[in-house]
């Protein structure tokens, strides 16, 4: 796998992200999320979503945890889509040019688990 300089993760690890929602209109946000898509395998997507916390002014912060599942396709993932859902049920989707800046900077690689067996050590627990 080519080293792109992005964060490298193994299945079983978690990626922690902050999604700040800067509101221009008065609304209550129920949930927000992000989808990362594999750059070579279009059907390989990883999603994280969650409820917001209110922060100063007109902003909300969503702390996202993206677990890397056992079956994740190894390789590079970039932001593909983000969304915000209001309490009233309206969903606002952000794709393409709306996420281009995040897609160019927020990416990560999923590595394959090594095939080599780990070394073990056994001792008494007192």
Walk me through this protein's architecture.
This protein has a single domain (7-110), classed as Immunoglobulin-like (Sandwich). It contains 1 helix and 9 strands. The chain has one helix spanning 100-105; strands spanning 7-9, 14-22, 29-38, 45-50, 53-54, 59-67, 75-86, 91-95, 107-110. The longest helix is centred in the last third of the chain and has 6 residues, at 100-105. The mean pLDDT is 89.
Average predicted local confidence, pLDDT: 89
User: How many DSSP H or I helices?
Assistant: 1
What oligomeric assembly is this protein in? single chain
User: Count of DSSP E strands?
Assistant: 9
Strand and helix map with partners:
Blueprint: E1 7-9, E2 14-22, E3 29-38, E4 45-50, E5 53-54, E6 59-67, E7 75-86, E8 91-95, H1 100-105, E9 107-110
Parallel strand pairs: 1-9
Antiparallel strand pairs: 2-6, 3-4, 3-7, 5-6, 7-8, 7-9
Salient structural properties:
three-stranded antiparallel sheet, six-stranded mixed sheet, 126 residues, single chain, Immunoglobulin-like
Brief characterization of the structure:
The chain is mainly beta and 126 residues long.
């Amino acid at each position: 796998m080519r080293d792109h300089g992005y964060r490298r993760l193994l299945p079983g690890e978690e990626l922690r992200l902050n999604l700040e929602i800067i509101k221009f209109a008065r609304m209550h946000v129920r949930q927000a999320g992000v989808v990362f898509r594999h750059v070579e395998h279009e059907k390989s997507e990883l999603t994280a979503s969650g409820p917001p916390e209110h922060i100063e002014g007109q902003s909300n912060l969503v702390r996202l945890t993206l677990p890397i599942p056992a079956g994740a396709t190894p390789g590079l993932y970039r932001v593909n889509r983000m969304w915000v859902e209001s309490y009233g049920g309206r969903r606002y989707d952000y794709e393409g040019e709306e996420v281009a800046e995040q897609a160019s900077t927020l990416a990560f690689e999923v590595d394959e688990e090594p095939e080599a067996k780990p070394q073990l050590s056994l001792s008494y627990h007192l």
